[in-house]
Amino acid sequence: MIDVALPIFIFAMGASVGSFINVVTLRFGFSEKVRNRSHCMACDIPIASHDLIPIFSFFFLGGRCRHCKSKLTLQYPIVELLLGVLFLSLWYTMPPSLTFWSLVNFVSVLVFLSTLVALVVYDLKHTLVPLAFAYTLLVSGFVATSANAFRISSLNPIFDGLIGGAVLFAFFAGIVFVTRGKGMGMGDAYIAGAVGVLLGIWRGIEAVSFGVWIATALYLTLLLLSSLLKKTTLLPAPFRVTIRKELPFIPFIAIGVLISLFTNLSPLEFGSWIGTFLW
Description:
The chain is mainly alpha-helical. It folds into two domains: 1-93, no CATH class; 99-279, no CATH class. It contains ten helices and no strands. It is globular, with a radius of gyration of 21 Å. It starts with a helix and ends with a helix.
């Protein structure tokens, strides 16, 4: 019974955190009077507790407000489902032992993943990186690394994380400096530094490399399609890009982090596999 109940509880906890992340990303940075309860963004009517059940309430309501029937954003169930899956994936791939430092490490990585999802959503919506989110990511990564160091009674993870964070931050900050902010923003440098703190120097570099590869491949594909189909409506407007168009980079870093965190795949091995497959 516990073997079934515990994964359900972990998933539900992740979905609940996803619900909180939705609220944060939709309201952060916008002045709004203090409220005791969530409310509809269209009609301003408070939302009943039974309409706030993660994932299920959205589909039970048909994706619309119960009162004014305005459409609700798909961001709600997508983020809730994503956090539930991530929490469950971390539990299965890196289950904590019932020791203090192991639990601290596990919870800190959950905070890191939750903050990373919040950054992805916010970057997609506004192409901005709130410093409050970046600092939370950095602190949670450092706490997770430190807890792991105390768990194994070695300071190597801390040194590795500090070096990784410094190298990745310096690299991306250098790009910002050279391009005068046109290549990417300082927010990307902060996030890359936090990734290095959590994953260490080599795994951090691999995670960011995956992100750069995926971003480059997608950008070049969309650029080519936009050029070929510029006189047609086959490619929706949101997916049309030009050489000057600004694209969010955090989602691709996040994909690289997930690949590095949940798999043993490395960019070199992946590149070798692609080469073998193509030739």
